[in-house]
From TrEMBL:
SUPFAM superfamilies: FAD-binding/transporter-associated domain-like (SSF56176), FAD-linked oxidases, C-terminal domain (SSF55103). This is FAD-binding protein. It comes from Actinacidiphila acididurans. Transmembrane segments: none annotated. Its cofactor is FAD.
Length: 506
């Protein structure tokens, strides 16, 4: 493994240690000092003009194993092989290489933890910017006596590391996705929904400032008051206008412990109504829910998951007051327990480790993530659930549904149904990747489910496996589309960034 090199030295490919000194724009390949193609592509050069590769602080990787890894993602069904990978040693490296790619017409995609499910962070023959090496956190800035603060973190930092750093100061980001080993830049590019969203908005709604590298290679700072058009275009903007390199996050007081409830239901409408009640009255800081199949595979059981924060973030939890008015099945399995706050946030870690050990984490994940209008959520959910009845979601697979509150979702590109309390319905499939016919059939079924929801006024949360054309994206973004398209033209005029999303390219 080569060591990071300073800016005065040439970069090296991994496979043979040969210096990568140029990019041949005719053969579309990186070239070594010996005049041969870098090991990544196996193509021969044509003797065309070469452009010098700029010196970098990090490494430019071209070995086949690394390229194959970045031609895959958590979906394990779409594979587009890049020509090279940048592992930046500094933010300046991202600026340098995006400018270089502009000169050469090379497409670029940023990759955090590779948790996309449909090739969204892949690029065929282009450059992948792996942000994992940009992972600095802090310092945490607490507002004296206010119980709030901020922290600036680089895009490659994962949320588990962020919360460890902030908890040392008694603070926490207000919203988390259920899985903590995702990068900050990755979740801010799609939105960042979780069980706390009904109370605090999405993760993108809790960002005060961004530092980004635009598709034109400009390093810019933006916020709600400084270059607000860029700020709006980057948050939940799918990496179309800029690569996030750092973000300043809002922090709130963290609890020491939480009171965690699992409440069973047998009627879908009652389950959703109780979730809506909890989303609107704020008695719980976290509200989610799971749909459970019966022995025949029909989705007839429901579990409401709710969490109340204890001191100092909230009052000492009172079970009677917290559960008042809820119509759960008291004869079913009710769970009420007190957990350490971080243990609650990180509760999926053991299950993920077990899946990794069993080799199942590398199975295909053609996920479906839809946002349903609240007034038709019960009808739509019933239709969609009946459509997958009897189909095993696979090892680790799960069906989730939970409420959001539109008034707390303020990011324009995080598109929500026009309803005060929309619902996220997520079918998190796990399928054997050897059966690609079944995986592709599931992707087609996802597209049909999305169309059903779209006609009813719903949208998709863009982390799943749904094939989208530019026309589909225009419909998804609705009234936000003109400003988004204008920002793309302004900040990525050559349309190099994030081609795997297919927002502005077929």
């Amino acid at each position: 493994m080569p060591q990071p090199l300073n800016r005065r030295t040439a970069l090296h490919g991994l496979a043979a240690g040969a210096a990568v000194i140029a990019f041949d724009p005719l053969a579309r390949t990186w070239v070594t000092a010996a005049g041969h193609p870098a090991p990544a592509t196996g193509r021969t050069t044509t003797g065309g003009p070469f452009a010098d590769v700029p010196p970098l602080d990090g490494t430019l990787v071209t070995d086949p194993a690394a390229l194959a890894a970045d031609a895959d993602d958590f979906g394990h069904s779409v594979h587009r092989t890049p020509a090279a990978i940048l592992r930046p040693g500094s933010v300046a490296d991202v600026v340098t290489m995006i400018r270089f790619c502009n000169d050469q017409g090379i497409q670029v995609a940023a990759r955090g933890q590779g948790h996309a499910t449909n090739g969204q962070a892949q690029v065929d023959g282009g450059l992948i910017v792996e942000t994992a090496t940009l992972n600095a956190i802090g310092p945490v800035r607490a507002q004296q006596g206010a119980g709030t603060g901020t922290v600036t973190v680089q895009a490659g930092a994962v949320w588990s590391a962020v919360v460890h750093a902030t908890l040392a100061q008694g603070l926490t980001p207000p919203v988390f996705t259920d899985y903590l080993e995702l990068s900050v830049g990755g979740t801010l590019s799609v939105g960042g929904l979780g069980g706390q969203t009904h109370l605090y908005g999405a993760q993108v709604d809790n960002v005060t400032q961004l530092q980004v590298v635009t598709g034109a290679g400009e390093l810019l700072t933006c916020s709600a008051t400084r270059r607000p058009d860029l700020f709006r275009a980057v948050l939940a903007g799918l990496g179309q206008c800029a690569v996030i390199v750092s973000a300043t996050l809002r922090l709130v007081t963290a609890p020491v412990t939480v009171r965690h409830f699992l409440l069973p239901y047998t009627d879908l409408a009652t389950f959703l109504d109780d979730q809506r009640l909890l989303a609107e009255d704020d008695r719980f800081a976290y509200v989610e829910g799971e749909v459970v199949p019966d022995a025949a595979g029909a989705f007839t059981g429901y579990v409401l998951e709710a969490v109340a924060y204890g001191p100092p973030a909230g009052p000492e939890p009172d079970d009677t007051a917290l559960l008042a008015g809820l119509r759960y099945d008291t004869s079913g399995a009710v769970t009420a327990e007190t957990l350490d706050y971080f243990d609650f946030l990180n509760r999926l870690a053991a299950g993920v480790a077990a899946l990794e050990q069993a080799g199942l984490w590398s199975w295909a994940h053609p996920w479906l993530n839809l946002l349903l209008p609240g007034d038709s959520a019960a009808t739509l959910a019933r239709t969609l659930l009946d459509g997958i009845a009897g189909q095993d979601t696979g090892p680790g697979g799960v069906v989730l549904i939970y409420p959001l509150v539109s008034d707390r979702l303020r990011t324009p590109l995080l598109r929500m149904p026009a309803d005060p309390v929309p619902y996220l319905l997520a079918v998190l499939w796990t399928m054997d990747p050897a059966d690609q016919a079944a995986v592709q059939a599931r992707a087609a079924a996802n597209a049909a489910a999305y169309e059903t929801v779209r006609v009813a006024g719903g949208t998709q949360y863009p982390v799943g496996t749904i094939a989208m054309s530019p026309a589909d994206w225009r419909a998804q973004y609705g009234r936000s589309w003109p400003e988004f398209a204008a920002a793309k033209q302004r900040y990525d005029p050559n349309r190099l960034l994030a081609p795997g999303q297919h927002v502005f390219t077929p």
